[in-house]
Amino acid sequence: MAEEAKWYVVHTYSGYENKVADSIVNAVENRQLHHLITDVKIPTEMVVEIKDDGQKVEKEQKLFPSYVFVKMIMTDDSWYVVRNIRGVTGFVGPGSKPVPLTEAEIERFQVENRQITTNYAVGDSVEVTGGYLEGFVGVVDAIDTVSAKIELIVRAEREGIPVISSMGTGNKLDPTAFEVEQIEKTSVCPLAKVMRRELKKRGISGVKVVYSKEEPVRQIERGVPASVSFVPPVAGMILAGEVIKDLIKTNSGPAG
User: Fold this and answer.
1) What are the tens digits of pLDDT across the range 76-88?
2) How far apart (Å, rounded) are the C-alpha atoms in residues 38 and 29?
3) In a 10 Å sphere around its CB, with 0-12 CB exposed, 13-18 middle and 19+ buried, how is residue 224 labelled?
4) Cα–Cα distance list, 41 to 62, 72, 145, 250 (Å)
5) What's the CA gap between 196 and 97, in Å, rounded?
């Protein structure tokens, strides 16, 4: 049975991370070592820096400076190739003996993006047949198109199904500016303004929404509002949290 490649951590001189990663990739290509060294990663995250003039700039930042993660089958040949790359000081492990990462460490260090495959898609109805969520029905709306959002909310109201809707996350940089409120009490958000008007025409009020009170960043060119990677997921987490809170209220029943 073929040995499985594992993740190892390589220590580098400060500022050499990208050079080391590129050199490992080049060495694999030149020496045809794809069967021994299968991946090289430098985990990063996007952060927002505030300049002296108050301007916010999104920047990629290394999660672990001076470290490179290499997925490889540890042999004398693969060890020699990586260890002798310029800028490498050694493998992480006792006495510089390479020790592979555990599954928990791989997840914690965000080395791999693990994908969960399901057989349903956005817009499908999902029925929970057991456990704490059994019997709960609700709609979580994160559609971008106004007409589709309105149609969904109108149908949910008609069927008596609880609904929570996400307003605009485009052109926003502050994930702490989100609030949960009834649609008619929202402000600032351009999408919420349109939804307030259209739902009022249809006699619908009291719809719970997640919206941002941050003024949208002005775009240089007109077009579809852009979004940064860390803002929409925050709105999604707030939506999920509100659903859980509603579930707890529903299942707990009236206090007494």
Assistant:
1) 999 999 999 999 9
2) 11
3) exposed
4) 11, 12, 37, 45
5) 63
